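Budget justification aside, the reviewers requested a transparent look at the raw inputs and outputs of the sequence design task funded under Objective 1. We therefore reproduce one unedited record. The lines immediately below are the structure tokens for a 380-residue chain.
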């Protein structure tokens, strides 16, 4: 089960963010500014956000395993078709379809793990799953970044699609069935209401929205910052910054121990503040500080995400785990889509400093919301 879920995470997130390292090449090919190029990311994550809640509700009827398997297979097939797109418009259509396909995994994975492992182990289990997700994001970005110089962005996307297909097959052959039987349509509809009424769950959705928006906004602009003046790195060297995802794997994989020692609230707020500090470190035009800041930001973000996702799964009503997981994922990828595009526009028109100020403000708002809500409605 652990191998299957990790492989699904690697495949899904490698495919989802494969275009991010080649955004400067897409901008040059199709005469786009950073905001227009970032649509290659935002269209997919926006489609994912819109479709994730209906897919999560569907998983209550047909089961988690069929949804996850359909997700990884369809996403891999669309990834193989993506380099064949004859225009930027068709590429965006394929990315939207791929976002819908990918929605099946993150939308139900946390609920699947709770049903297999129980509530007590959910923090560590979700942390391990997110560690696999971050490995996928890192591998996909590195593969694309190192391939683009020699193969162009078409070849770079093909390399990532092949990697995603391999890991999707691992999931197909190793994922065990869910421990919970599918529910009726009435249970599903009631669960959607339960997933959006509990204040502590709404706070976690807010963290997902603002933290993910901040993270993607920074990384969407990072390629332009690193390859532009005054840093002037080559695309291959600039893509090495995605090795920072290794820190995300460590922080999310070990966050269960942090939660056990300090509690969910302190762990979540601490992780959000670390993320903000990482963003501030990138302000000077120093390659060392920019890279260090991205490493700190990445570690803090993945820890915050693991805490919030696990908190959602643990606090979700028993009959609404899939819907709560879907609502969290909707907020997460809505943040990626809207925040990522907004950040790219801010960077294009106002520069890196104002992007950083915006990101830090979002993170502080997320920390304030989760603190106030937890102290009032879940004081532990």
């Amino acid at each position: 089960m652990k191998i299957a879920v990790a492989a699904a995470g690697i495949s899904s997130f490698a495919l989802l963010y494969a275009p991010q390292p080649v955004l400067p090449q897409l901008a040059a090919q199709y005469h786009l500014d950073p905001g227009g190029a970032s649509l290659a990311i935002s269209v997919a994550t926006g489609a994912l956000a819109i479709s994730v809640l209906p897919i999560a509700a569907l998983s209550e009827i047909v089961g988690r395993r069929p949804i996850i398997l359909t997700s990884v297979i369809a996403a891999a097939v669309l990834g193989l078709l993506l380099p064949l797109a004859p225009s930027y418009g068709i590429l965006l259509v394929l990315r939207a379809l791929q976002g819908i396909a990918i929605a099946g995994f993150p939308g139900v994975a946390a609920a699947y793990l709770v049903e297999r492992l129980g509530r007590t182990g959910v923090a560590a289990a979700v942390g391990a799953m997110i560690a696999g997700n971050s490995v996928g994001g890192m591998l996909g970005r590195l593969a694309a970044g190192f391939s683009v110089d020699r193969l162009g962005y078409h070849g770079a996307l093909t390399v990532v699609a092949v990697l995603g297909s391999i890991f999707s097959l691992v999931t197909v052959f190793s994922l065990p069935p869910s421990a919970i039987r599918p529910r009726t349509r009435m249970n599903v509809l009631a669960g959607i209401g339960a997933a959006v009424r509990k204040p502590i769950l709404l706070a976690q959705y807010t963290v997902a929205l603002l933290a993910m928006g901040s993270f993607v906004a920074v990384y969407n602009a990072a390629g332009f910052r690193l390859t532009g003046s005054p840093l002037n790195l080559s695309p291959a060297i600039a893509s090495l910054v995605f090795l920072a995802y290794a820190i995300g794997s460590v922080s999310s994989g070990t966050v269960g121990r942090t939660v056990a020692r300090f509690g969910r609230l302190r762990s979540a707020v601490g992780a959000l503040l670390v993320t903000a500090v990482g963003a501030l470190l990138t302000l000077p035009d120093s390659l060392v500080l920019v890279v260090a800041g991205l490493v700190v930001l990445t570690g803090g973000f993945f820890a915050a995400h693991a805490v919030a996702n696990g908190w959602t799964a643990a606090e979700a009503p028993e009959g609404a785990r899939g819907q709560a997981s879907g609502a969290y994922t909707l907020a997460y990828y809505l943040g990626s889509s809207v925040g990522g595009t907004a950040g790219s526009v801010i960077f294009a028109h106002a520069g890196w400093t104002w992007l950083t100020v915006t990101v830090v403000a979002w993170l502080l708002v997320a920390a304030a919301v989760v603190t106030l809500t937890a102290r009032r409605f879940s004081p532990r």
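The chain is about 85% helix and 0% strand. The two ends are 31 Å apart (CA to CA). Computational costs for records of this kind are itemized in the attached budget.
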